[in-house]
Structures are given as structure tokens and as C-alpha cells.
Amino acid sequence: MKEQADNLEAKMHARADRWRSQAYPFGSEMPWDSTGQEEVYAWTKYFGYNDKAGVTLNAILGYDPTVPHWGYNGSARRYWDFIFAAKDRRLERQLHHYGSGLNAVPLLAEYREHPDDFYLLRVGYGGTMGALTDIDQEGFASAAFHSFPDMLKPDPLSGDYGPNFFGHAWNTATYLVHHPQLGWLAFGGNVEEHGGTIKVTPLDSARTRVYIAPFGLWLTLDAGGFQSVELNPGTGTVRLMLAAATQFTAEARLHIDELTQVKNRGNYHPVKTYKLDREAYVVPLTEAATQVELTKTQ
Questions:
Q1: Range of the domain at 249
Q2: Which residues are CB-contacts of 262 (< 8 A; sequence separation ≥ 6)?
Q3: 271 and 291: one domain?
Q4: Which of 106, 165, 271, 280 is the most exposed place for a label (fewest CB within 10 A)?
Q5: pTM surpassing 0.85?
Q6: Judgement on whether residues 125 and 191 belong to the same structural domain of the protein
Q7: 161 by DSSP, 3-state: which?
Q8: How many domains does the chain have?
Q9: Nearest Cα to 266, choosing from 294, 242, 226?
Q10: What pLDDT digit, counting tens, does each position of 54-101 carry?
Q11: Burial class of 226 by CB neighbour count within 10 A (0 to 12, 13 to 18, 19+)
Q12: Last residue of a domain, one of 155, 171, 187
């Protein structure tokens, strides 16, 4: 397995080296392309080519807007795929083509490293949620939404929707943010404040990932689900309520990652001792919700 992984890494390193040598290492037969950036960003970051990752991120921000409208917020600017992968073929601004879900991947990854950049979260989360707007009440997924006023409806073919849903599945999470003007906000959940304690209830489509921006804390579950997350901003204590066990999930597997140097960073770990397996804390679940308290060491 290691030999296969090393072989893959070597091949991707060669690709990343080529990307680094190009001014804009993403494109296609289109006048410009809003797909492919996510892999260029991911691999150039992985190999430490942060300059090229920055170029890629800025390219995304050049065509991916934040607009107070469900169809345009986080919707990567795209016009031509209706010609190739739609029933109604025409040049038209596509709303939430698969560029939305895919471009949200680097935007939110960058946000988790720079939680003071609220703009990245707004655009990235818009793209992540925009991918779901292509799915109708019966579960059909459209290639994109026709934005011209004579139509204003989803295209009746799925086209290349698959990568859009991948972007959503990869990214879906709840983000807890303290905004300097707006106070406590939750993207993908509901937030409450009681006596100095902040509680967020995840309502995103997976409920297995929570990012606590003031602490730079990225909590993810390989198994199990978050019922709620509470934090005390004064003490830095974090309390997790994990969903009850099911016939398929007898234990939760919790990863705790701190992705950036923030003021409140503090090497978080569970107060109680749990077995570690593949870098995850293995938490036995019961018929009721299970509480896991996290504390930090300086």
C-alpha cells in the first residue's frame, strides 16, 4: 500500500511542478474555465507551493461572487456548458453549475486557515449550499438553473451535476463564527447564547463536521454525528453532544484539528481518556446522547 501511495505522490508531484511553471495552470477549450482549480489548489498547497495556490485562490475569487441571491451567491461564473450537457442548449449564465460545489472546496479550506477572512466563508458556503438548489423535490439533479428571464427553471438533464454534489458532500459542515459587527453566527446550524455559553446545533446535511472559528478548531467525525456543540469563550472549554448509537454506529470516531495560529489556540484534547485509532478518538455511544468535553493545554 505504501508503494502505491508513494507512486501516486510522485506522479502528483510531477504534475504540481508543471502547474507551478505555468502562470495560470487551469483552463480548457472555454474562454476561461471555473473548474480544475480545486485540484491545483489542493496539490500545490500539499507540496508547499503556496504562491501558486494563492494565484489559484485569487482566480476563483475573480469569478465567484457573493451576492444576496440564492442563485448567484457562490455561483462560479459559467455560460457554455448548457451547449454540451443540457437539453435546452444555449449560451446563458448558469446558476450553480458544478463550478459552485468544486470551487467552494479551496475557498473553505483557505477560510479554515484564515478564520478572520469572513468573505471566504460567505462565498464558499454559498457555493456549497448552491449545489443543493439543483435538486428538485423528487430528487432529480439538474446540470444547472437557466437564469434568462424567458426560462428561469432547472435544465431537465443531469448533465455533469455529479462533481457539484461531490463538492457539497466534501464540504458540508457547520461553521461557528464571532463577527465583530454581527456577533455570533452559525453557517449550517442554529446558534444560541445563554449565560456566556455559546451553543450551536448543526443542521447541515451531514452533521459530522464543525468548525469553531475563534479557536481555529476543526472537529470531524468518521463515524457518529454531532447533536450540538457548546463552548465557553472565556475558559476555552468545548462540550460536544454526540448523537445516540444506532444499529450501525456503536461508537464515534472523533478527529480534533487546529488548522491555524489564532489567539485562542491551545492543543485541544478530550478530558476523558479514549482509545486512539488511526488518529481518531474512539468514543463509545449509548442509547442517549454522549457528552465529550474538550479542554486545552497551553
A1: 174-296
A2: 115, 214, 215, 216
A3: yes
A4: 271
A5: yes
A6: no
A7: coil
A8: 2
A9: 294
A10: 999 999 999 999 999 999 999 998 888 899 889 999 999 999 999 999
A11: buried
A12: 171
